[in-house]
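Notes from hallway chat w/ T.B., transcribed later so I don't forget. T.B. wanted the structure written out for a chain they're using in a teaching module, and asked if we could keep both sequence and structure tokens in one place. Agreed to drop them here.
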Amino acid sequence: MNHVMKICLGIALSLMTLVAAARADEFKLSNNQRISCSRGLAAGKLNTATCKSYAYLFNVRTSEYFRCQVSLALTRDNKEVINVQTDGGCVRKPRIFDTDSHYSFDATETEPPNTNSFFGPGGYSVWASDDTAQKVRGCITVSSGLGSDISKCVDMTFQ
């Protein structure tokens, strides 16, 4: 398992390097990255561990964001690592606010399998705030189980 952690760390550092290459004044990485791993064990057979991690890259000027995911699958027997596969990429998501300003952002998501994922592989929530005004918007996206995700945002009221 130590080998898996080294590979995951290498992938995470690669992602951080790509983020640093983006324009530092406009893009920020979310502070809430997670990793979830599962493994299949069978006595005398091959063992497979699969790990996934995600992060969000946020444009602080436009409130547009990207959901990025990296995965690693490691297959081994009792003596050696047989196969390591990695995959990853970022998917553009729509703006949270219609106008440009200076925004802050954070995100979190369920990690399947999870009791919170009633209809499919789970969902995620994002929060964004305007740093120049008292304006906060919370958005939740969940899998409908019918092929398309459902996403809704709510402007917060202050009492």
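Follow-up for T.B.: The mean pLDDT is 76. Might be a good example for the class.
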